[in-house]
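Notes from hallway chat w/ T.B., transcribed later so I don't forget. T.B. wanted the structure written out for a chain they're using in a teaching module, and asked if we could keep both sequence and structure tokens in one place. Agreed to drop them here.
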Amino acid sequence: MRKKVVVILLFALVNALFARAQQYDIQMDNRIYADGIASVKLLSSEDQLSEPVGTLGDIFHISFDDLNLEIRHLKYTFIHCTHDWKPSDLNQIEYIEGFMEDDITLYDHSFNTIEPYMHYHADFPNENISFNKSGNYVLFVYDDTPDNPVLTQRFMVVEPLPAKVVCDVHSAIDVNNRFTHQDVSFTVFTGGYRIRNPQQTVHATIQQNGRWDNAILGLTYHSGVGSELHFDYMDGRNSFPGGAEFHTFDISTLRSNADHIVGISFVNHHTHAYVLQDEARPYSAYESRGNINGRCYYRNRDLRNEFSEDYVFTHFTLKSQYPLTDGSVYVFGELTGWQLLDEAKLHYNKEFDFWETDFLLKQGVYNYQYVYVPYGSGTIDATYIEGSHYETNNIYYIYIYYQEEGTSYDRLIGYQSCSITDNE
């Protein structure tokens, strides 16, 4: 009896702390809240380019660095979300098994680096904490208590027997956007899911590359026959600007200039790398190039030891013949967490007539692009500087959610990725 009371009190305490956390500036998005935290990756496998999507029961991996070397008592928990990334109506006790939170106890010191850091990592679910529902989740990492947030990261958990999703990426149906946009159409074969009212219970999300700011949420099917739900439209609701292929640079070695690096120097006890100058290309023809769709992976080619990747002040310069005075320009991609970071904002250098910025990045190979945000808008425009082409090899991720009648949460019953090259 006493043990049962203790367990109930523990659940109540953790839920009270969690409720308090909602009063703070915590978003159901990929965010960093603590200074010094960098190079966050949440993956579904050991592959650094894998997506944070797994089947119920699969193991996820979270890792990040702390450049401030602070003593932290790191803990984490999970927040279950709706298909449109709002906290669901489920209580934590309904979807978490084991403890309501777990500690991050695994960490390593960087090896032989100029910029020292602590590398933290954890795998979940594990014997201490797991989840029993599919759907959208936010991993919430905090320092001792939820009112000291460190980071939040989205991840998705798919049902063990998912519905089949067949997708097609093609140039836009709208003749005005035929050469600049891509439409993403798909069909869901519901299989063993008996869906009686799909117009209200089934929602789809389309995500372009790793971005969530321009993801299309809450799509309902256009037509259906039996167990087939068709998501193809004529009104452009499934359309994305194609954009351009990402730029690439390689700082996995600091002994010589690698891909798109024109100089490496050591100044004031810091290493600096200079990326080949880019030029605004809004009206240029499509240029095919191999890329990793805005992603990055960490690597030190000079040392084989683990955690030997150093941090480098990486310099970007952009030359533009077109006015950039009515908005702000940012370096953008996974290297900025797909967010608009102050340190990634470019500033005009009047002496040399170009735009520039520099910020710390971990050694590795990177994709990136330049995005434009008009003043007072807040909307990211990835085409103003880079241009837009229907041929661009973007990768799209499709998520199918189903809120079964009599339940209060969105199950993730289908997942698929595709690109325009799949049609070739």
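Follow-up for T.B.: DSSP finds three helices and 31 strands in the chain. Might be a good example for the class.
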